[in-house]
Each structure stands twice: as structure tokens, then as C-alpha cells.
UniProtKB/TrEMBL annotation:
Example GO molecular function: DNA-binding transcription factor activity
Species for this entry: Paenibacillus sabuli
SMART domains associated with the record: HTH_MARR
SUPFAM superfamilies: Winged helix' DNA-binding domain
Keyword Transcription regulation attached: yes
Domain HTH marR-type: 10-145
InterPro entries xrefs: HTH_MarR-typ, Tscrpt_reg_MarR-type_CS, WH-like_DNA-bd_sf, WH_DNA-bd_sf
Listed name of the protein: MarR family transcriptional regulator
Keyword Transcription: yes
Keyword vocabulary terms for this entry: DNA-binding, Transcription, Transcription regulation
Lineage: Bacteria, Bacillati, Bacillota, Bacilli, Bacillales
């Protein structure tokens, strides 16, 4: 059990973390938009990354992976299909199932996005020494793992 002073210090740390996360997220989105990746939003890029890594997927599976609705995936897919980055096909085994897959043009864009992501991460971590970067990576991984175990 924490003393009142310990609890106040704890809350101060959490408030500083909250503010830091907010500022980093804002910087991340600003830098993403500056780099204008083919007019893609972050979620559209995530959809391309999922298809690139995992191959053709059902709309419902992508919706679950991206934590959005199937309708949102369909809307994103329409835009990505129009840009030639994604293709839509019916499943060969069940014609009711619609599959989305990445095109060769989409794969090229994923490579481009990867290099831009690294540029942005370099910018976000400027000023950190290598050991600090390793420690930040370890701590962020620990947070992600703790929440993954809860779900």
C-alpha cells in the first residue's frame, strides 16, 4: 500500500507519461502527414502491411486485426483498389467470402513506407543514446506484453 506522498508521486509520473505519449503521437502524425505517403492514412497503411505480411485476407479478419468495422475495411479497400494497391476477389471455396490481397504496386509502397517509418522513428528518438534507446525499446515491449496477456 502506498503512502499518500507515494501515491501523489505515482500520479505525477503517470500524468507526465500521459503528456509525453500525447506529444509523441501528435509528432508522429504530423511527420506521417508531412511525408504524404500516397495520401494514405495510418490505418490504410496498416491494412497494406497486414496484407503484405500475411497474404490475402477476408474483410472480417482484417477488421478484427485493425480494430475497425468490416464497413470501414470495405471503404478503405475501395480507395486502395482505386489506387491499384489492393485487389478484391471472391474465395474459390466459398463465393460469399470476399478476399483482399496486396498488388505488386502495393508491395512497392510498403517498402517505401518502411523507409519513411524508420525516418520518423529516428526523428522521434533523436537525443537518445544507444543504451537509452535499447532501454526504451525494452520498456515499451514490456508494456505491450503486459497488455497482450490481459486480452
Amino acid at each position: 500500500m502506498r503512502t499518500r506522498e507515494e501515491q501523489e508521486r505515482h500520479w505525477q509520473h503517470l500524468n507526465r507519461l500521459d503528456e509525453a505519449f500525447r506529444q509523441l503521437r501528435k509528432l508522429l502524425l504530423t511527420e506521417w502527414n508531412k511525408r504524404g505517403v500516397a495520401g494514405l492514412g495510418v490505418t490504410q497503411a496498416k491494412l497494406l502491411f497486414k496484407l503484405s505480411a500475411q497474404g490475402a485476407q477476408k474483410v472480417s479478419a482484417l477488421a478484427e486485426m485493425l480494430a475497425v468495422t468490416s464497413g470501414a475495411v470495405t471503404g478503405m479497400a475501395d480507395q486502395l483498389i482505386e489506387q491499384g494497391l489492393v485487389s478484391r476477389e471472391r474465395s474459390e471455396t466459398d463465393r460469399r467470402i470476399v478476399m483482399l490481397d496486396i498488388t505488386e504496386e502495393g508491395r512497392k509502397l510498403v517498402e517505401d513506407i518502411n523507409s519513411r517509418k524508420l525516418e520518423i522513428m529516428e526523428l522521434l528518438t533523436v537525443g537518445l543514446e544507444e543504451g537509452e534507446l535499447q532501454e526504451l525499446s525494452r520498456l515499451m515491449g514490456k508494456l505491450v506484453d503486459a497488455h497482450a496477456q490481459r486480452d
